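Please fill in the sequence for the structure shown.

STRUCTURE ENCODING:
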């Protein structure tokens, strides 16, 4: 048994991102905290995503995405894109990446990616993406997962898994 799993796992440092996905004319975006670089050559990022989510279908079928780095001041944006819904992108300014995936204009930076492959990872899928372009858009300090409290409701999920 792991006591206080929700608090302990938040000590693993990682940021909070908005991942923009596109499949043809269909676009969506979701909040992700489990993103990491996994290779230098080629430049690869890994994204963890729930395969039951609408965005996963767009990512899988479209094969492209952007990883948009949020600033510490963008907690409300992380919360917004962490919710379910089909028209979450309204009210935000979007640019188009080389691949055609949506870039959140107010993010600190973005990584434009093509899906390489994906694999099972418990209740999620790990999607490995090749970075084809990237740029800094705005100055600031990145939002860390540990700064989001229980925004994602993870304390309940740890309780459900029997690890707390």
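FILLED IN BY: designer on duty
SEQUENCE:
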């Amino acid at each position: 048994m792991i006591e206080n799993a929700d608090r302990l796992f938040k000590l693993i440092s990682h940021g909070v991102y908005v991942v923009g996905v596109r499949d043809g004319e269909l676009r969506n975006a979701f909040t992700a905290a489990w993103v990491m670089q996994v290779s230098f050559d080629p430049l690869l990022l890994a994204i963890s995503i729930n395969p039951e989510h609408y965005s996963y279908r767009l990512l899988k079928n479209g094969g492209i995405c952007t990883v948009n780095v949020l600033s510490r001041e963008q907690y409300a944006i992380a919360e917004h894109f962490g919710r379910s819904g089909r028209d979450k992108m309204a009210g935000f300014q979007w640019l188009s990446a080389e691949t055609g995936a949506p870039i959140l204009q107010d993010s600190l930076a973005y990584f434009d990616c093509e899906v390489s492959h994906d694999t099972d990872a418990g209740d999620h899928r790990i999607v490995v993406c090749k970075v084809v372009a990237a740029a800094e858009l705005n100055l600031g300090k990145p939002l860390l997962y540990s700064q989001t409290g229980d925004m994602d409701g993870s304390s309940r999920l740890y309780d459900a898994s029997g690890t707390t």
